[in-house]
Amino acid sequence: MLKLSKLADYATVLMTLVAREPQRLHSGLELAERSRLPAPTVAKLLKSLARGGLLQSLRGAHGGYRLARAPEHISVADIIAALEGPIGVTECATHPGGCTLESGCSTRANWRLINVAIRQALEAVSLAQMAAPPPAARDGEFPLTFHRPQALASPQNPA
């Protein structure tokens, strides 16, 4: 199962809260209350997001956190990478040479293709989109459309 870590999920929740009011400073305690996450977890995540260049940290009595750049210029991929490092579904997708089977692996190229597709999908969703009210769903479906790359289209499998 491909699964995002809890910390990356929580970081996305926090970044979304900050993005809803991007001009204002947000305290860690306020974000913990609004997100219903434990304050120590929020503090840890805010520090990681600041180290990752996604948040600015301002010290002092009137300090707090704010976005380092506009929410339109921060992707979900940026948030995940700040917490977990490079996005990869397999070890060889992000760290070539780390697998003993790599030299004879018949699936390596396909896993890299899948990894690129996942990364591109995560890069295509901005923090501004995450912070916006969700679009109305129809019959339990979300109004998202993914287009297959031309390289995958064939006469038997049109895109």
From TrEMBL:
One of its GO terms (cellular component) is cytosol. SUPFAM superfamilies: Winged helix' DNA-binding domain. GO terms for molecular function: DNA-binding transcription factor activity. PROSITE patterns: HTH_RRF2_1, HTH_RRF2_2. Pfam families: Rrf2. It comes from the Bacteria. NCBIfam families: rrf2_super (TIGR00738), suf_reg_Xantho (TIGR02944). This is BadM/Rrf2 family transcriptional regulator. It comes from Sinimarinibacterium flocculans.
